[in-house]
Amino acid sequence: MRLPLLLAAAGLVALAAAGPTALGRLALMAGLPGAAASMIADPSARGVALYRAGRYEQADDAFRAAGRSATFNRGVSLAATGDYPLSVAYFDAVLFAAPGDSEARDNRNVVSALVPPVIGEGNESGRIAAKPITGPSGLPIETDPRGRRLDAGGLVADMAWVAAIPDDPGEFLRLRLADEHLRRLALGLTPPEEGDLW
Asked: Which of 69, 91, 172, 191 is the most exposed place for a label (fewest CB within 10 A)?
């Protein structure tokens, strides 16, 4: 009968020596997240306890304090607080670091369905609507620094502007091909140059 009492006393001494964080983790495992949140010092683990207790705003603050180690959990807490666009961005960050994370991909798909689509303004021709360039006074600027007249937020294609364009299609093509080659090199789409086979 003394052995169970000695074991219980030794267990209590070990818990007291381990500190409040260990007690908090035990409380979290026992299903007492509210009590666990007050005892845990680590912001990431405290955020989990707060989230399980239904205190989503506080959990989000804890995950923010935890930093990059809690990126996935921050995405979940942001979704719980209703900040869907930022939540999608956090899940994108998780997927950037670990493209095979299926749980992050599933969560991202669910949350992104809640983000309202962005609809831009356009003109009748299907292009983005141009806004007039305004000066510090708020009035539209009617001339550019060279004194040419502006029209609907851009330069008017007058004869002086057309005459300033170089008429060298070969040079344009050479520059375009060089730019495309650099773009493909940057993306890793160009095979390495082979040496002389002979």
From this structure: 191
